[in-house]
Design brief:
Helix content: 10-25%
Number of helices: 2
Largest sheet: 6 strands, mixed, barrel
Number of strands: 6
Order of helices and strands: HEEEEEHE
CATH class of the largest domain: Mainly Beta
Strand order of the largest sheet: 1-5-2-4-3-6
Radius of gyration: 19 Å
Shape: globular
Strand content: 25-35%
CATH superfamily of the largest domain: RlpA-like domain
CATH architecture of the largest domain: Beta Barrel
Distance between the termini: 60 Å
Length: about 130
C-alpha cells in the first residue's frame, strides 16, 4: 500500500475514533458524582422515549443525558423541599443549565407545574450523596 493511502487510512481511523468517543461517551458515562444540581423542567409527551417505551405523563419518569435507562433517581425541589423518586427512561434535557426533565405527574408532586422549571438536586437512589447544592 502506498504511504499516502496508509496515512489517509490512519487519519480516517483517528477521526472516526474521536467522533465515536465524542458522541457515545455521554450516553454511557454516568455523572461524576451521585448528586447533580441544576434546573428541572417537565414534559407531557406520549410518544416513544429513547428507551423505546411509550411515555406516560401520569407516571414517575425522567429524561437524563447520561444515566442508564432504569436508574432510579430522587429529584428534590430546592425551593419547597418536595421530593419524588423517578425512573430514567429517556434522554434529555437539551437546554443549558437543566439537569433533568420529569413527567407532568412528577412535576406536580414537586410543585413546579405553573413555573415550568425549578432548581433541583438529583440523587441516584442507593448511592451516597457526596455534595449539597448551594
Amino acid at each position: 500500500m502506498p504511504a499516502k493511502s496508509v496515512r489517509a487510512t490512519a487519519v480516517t481511523l483517528a477521526v472516526f475514533s474521536l467522533t465515536t468517543l465524542m458522541f457515545l461517551s455521554p450516553l454511557t458515562a454516568g455523572p461524576a458524582s451521585a448528586v447533580e444540581c441544576g434546573r428541572a423542567s417537565w414534559y407531557a409527551m406520549t410518544s416513544r422515549t429513547a428507551s423505546g417505551v411509550r411515555s406516560n405523563p401520569n407516571g414517575y419518569f425522567a429524561a437524563h443525558r447520561t444515566l442508564p435507562f432504569g436508574t432510579r433517581i430522587r429529584v428534590e425541589n430546592l425551593r419547597n423541599g418536595r421530593a419524588v423518586e423517578v425512573s430514567v427512561n429517556d434522554r434529555g434535557p437539551f437546554v443549558r443549565g437543566r439537569v433533568v426533565d420529569v413527567t407532568k405527574a412528577a412535576a406536580a408532586k414537586l410543585g413546579f407545574i405553573r413555573a415550568g422549571t425549578a432548581p433541583v438536586r438529583v440523587t441516584v437512589v442507593g448511592k451516597p450523596a457526596g455534595k449539597s447544592c448551594g
